[in-house]
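can u do me a favor
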């Protein structure tokens, strides 16, 4: 019936679309910077982090990376605790993004040590061989700090003259890494290895040499970038002459060492494959 009256139909359709737009777009923009949604642990950016954020915007990193972990199982398992509205309170503009050519970065802070980021930004393929992320070696140039103080004031972020003075000599890359390390790390969410979920810590592949090739392959794919192809270390310490029991290696791999920058592999590799890498490491230490 209605479709026979094009003008009324058009008007009604426009109203419906506008309501939809208001609810899904305009309202959230209002909500995210609402001071009532403040989370006590979430702090404003420091001067160095803010400069890093501006470079992130300038370089268009958000064309390949999102910054929001959706409350969906797949997102949470891959990236960690889903994003809370209050975490974006200091983001003007927010950088949620909509395209994931690369992984989400909302929880990247604390996932890797600074040294990993420095190498990865300069030459992503050196850390992740099949990466199609461009090289950002040119960010090693000095940071332009002429507007930093004004920017901090405009956003009402606290800063001290000492903090601003400390920016001299920093590179754009330093600022970028400071920014990345801040992302999503304000609220405590990383789990550390929990003995309860680990169960009986006995290597099921003890003395089973047939799992060593698979352990080696996992090592090359997941670990060599930080511990070196020869186990002699790099971003992470040398594992060549580490004298630790299997159970220690298992616990370290399962839960990571969040404070030291060793990532957790419990979710991505699972117990069996962790024991296989542990067997591989032990076999290499014997010689
Ligand atoms: C052409 C798309 C593209 C652009 C542009 C891009 N990246 Fe990436 N990025 C990727 C891909 C793909 C990966 C996954 C492979 C890897 O780690 O290199 C990645 C990975 C990363 C990671 C590691 C994520 C993790 O959890 O392991 C960080 C950090 C990162 N990018 C930061 C940046 C920053 C900062 C910029 C802007 C200066 C940027 N990227 C620009 C595609 C891109
Ligand atoms: C992003 C870099 C990175 C990756 C990837 C990584 N590690 Fe680590 N790893 C580290 C760092 C950094 C430390 C030191 C942490 C500390 O002690 O604070 C460490 C510590 C360790 C330790 C403890 C060493 C000791 O003497 O106590 C073991 C064992 C280990 N890693 C094994 C592995 C294995 C096996 C893999 C692959 C499944 C792996 N790591 C992947 C960075 C990494």
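np, heres the sequence
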């Amino acid at each position: 019936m209605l479709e026979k009256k094009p003008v009324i139909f058009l008007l009604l359709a426009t109203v419906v679309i506008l309501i939809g737009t208001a609810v899904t777009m305009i309202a959230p923009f209002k909500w995210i910077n609402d001071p009532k949604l403040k989370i006590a642990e979430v702090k404003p950016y420091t001067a160095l982090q803010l400069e890093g954020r501006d470079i992130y915007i300038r370089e268009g990193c958000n064309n390949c990376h999102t910054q929001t972990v959706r409350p969906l199982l797949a997102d949470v398992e891959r990236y960690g605790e889903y994003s809370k509205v209050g975490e974006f309170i200091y983001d003007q503009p927010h950088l949620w993004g909509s395209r994931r050519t690369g992984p989400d970065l909302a929880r990247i802070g604390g996932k890797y040590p600074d040294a990993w980021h420095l190498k990865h930004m300069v030459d992503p393929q050196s850390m992740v061989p099949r990466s199609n992320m461009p090289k950002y070696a040119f960010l090693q140039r000095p940071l332009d700090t002429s507007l930093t103080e004004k920017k901090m004031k405009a956003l009402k972020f606290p800063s001290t003259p000492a903090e601003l003075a400390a920016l001299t000599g920093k590179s754009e890359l330093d600022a970028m890494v400071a920014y990345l390390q801040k992302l999503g790390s304000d609220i405590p969410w990383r789990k550390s290895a929990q003995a309860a979920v680990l169960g009986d810590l006995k290597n099921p592949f003890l003395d089973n040499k047939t799992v060593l090739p698979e352990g080696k392959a996992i090592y090359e794919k997941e670990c060599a970038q930080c511990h070196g192809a020869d186990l002699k270390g790099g971003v992470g310490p040398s594992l060549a002459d580490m004298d630790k029991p299997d159970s220690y290696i298992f616990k370290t791999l399962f839960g990571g060492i969040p404070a030291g920058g060793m990532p957790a592999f419990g979710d991505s590799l699972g117990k069996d494959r962790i024991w296989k890498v542990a067997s591989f490491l032990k076999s290499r230490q014997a010689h």
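The pocket of heme C (ligand 2) is lined by residues 112-113, 116, 222-223, 225-227, 235-237, 239, 242, 249, 252-253, 257, 260-263, 265, 277 (CB under 6 Å). hope that helps!!
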